[in-house]
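Page 37, top half.
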Amino acid sequence: PLCSNNNPYASFGATLARDEEQNLWSTPHDVTHTEADDDRVLYNMIVVRNQLDRDSEEWQKLNYDIYTLRQTRKEVRSRWKHILEDLGFQKEADSLLSVTKLSIISDSQNMGKARDILLKLSEETNIFPTSWELSERYLFVVDRLIALDAADEFFKMASVVYPKRPSGERVDDSQKAPQC
């Protein structure tokens, strides 16, 4: 064959073996990540941080930003998993959320519907943080939910579990009841 998996140089460069520092998702050695825009942003932050002196203020700031981004991703994934499990996908939740470079859209006719549902989830629920840029990863997950005829139920559950607050309504420490 023209492409051989036996080539020792095939993994050289951008596809170098991933360790915890190069991992683009949320856990060490996670092979389920795609190389989407949000992954490239994280990767670039890691590359820049690794070129800085560990004792520098810039390194500390970038390290904090990387940690925060990873924690946000974990939280979003946890929210999705929680809803999937509540919908009865306890055993399938992890595989439904697993997106790799080899993942494909099950039906190209569902692509528009998947985008609409993902956008609706973003606009009408708090399943994603306010500053979150929609991830291509969740487009694949919504496509899978459409194929399982569970996308509408997922949206309904997300609306109940993570309702969107009106834009003027914020919950912060000054609005919480004082604790005695």
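Page 37, bottom half:
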Amino acid sequence: MANNTFPLLMMMVIISLAIAFTEAKWAESVEAKKEAAPSETVTNLQFFFHDTVSGKNPSAVRVAQASDTNKSLTLFGALLMVDDPLTETPDPNSKLVGRAQGLYGSAGQKELGLIMALSFAFTDGPYSGSSISIFGKNPALNPVRELPVVGGTGVFRLARGYAIAHTHWFNLSGDAIVGYNVTVIH
């Protein structure tokens, strides 16, 4: 009986591994475009960034500010440290796919323009343990923004690409849910 069980167990392990390494709903490899070399992969990621600055358990906190920050309409000089959840849908209770960790600051004196330095660290699916790095200007009041992907770790080592951000929801406290559609060449 033990001899018959071993092949069945091996088959179950192989099927389980195949399922575990399939791509998640929020990520897919796409055909390489002209920007990618033949040996590179182009991956499209779609997820939602939940930035909470209000309440008892904020995911973004102000860690520094200039002496005149509170007099500025754009909060010029404010610097926030973040540990924001990344989810599969805009619903805050949807599947967690990673965390956005890093900082952003208000860098515009006349318009709301954030400078963002974030690592999107993935915790789900085939990209679990890998991250992409975003660094650039985010004109947050524009309905759609483009930010550069400047690097990554794990599967995304030496990554480049771009992230399209669109505000899904925000309130007067400054809390926001932002949809990200990221194209990564790695």
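Margin note: The first strand starts at residue 27 and ends at 30.
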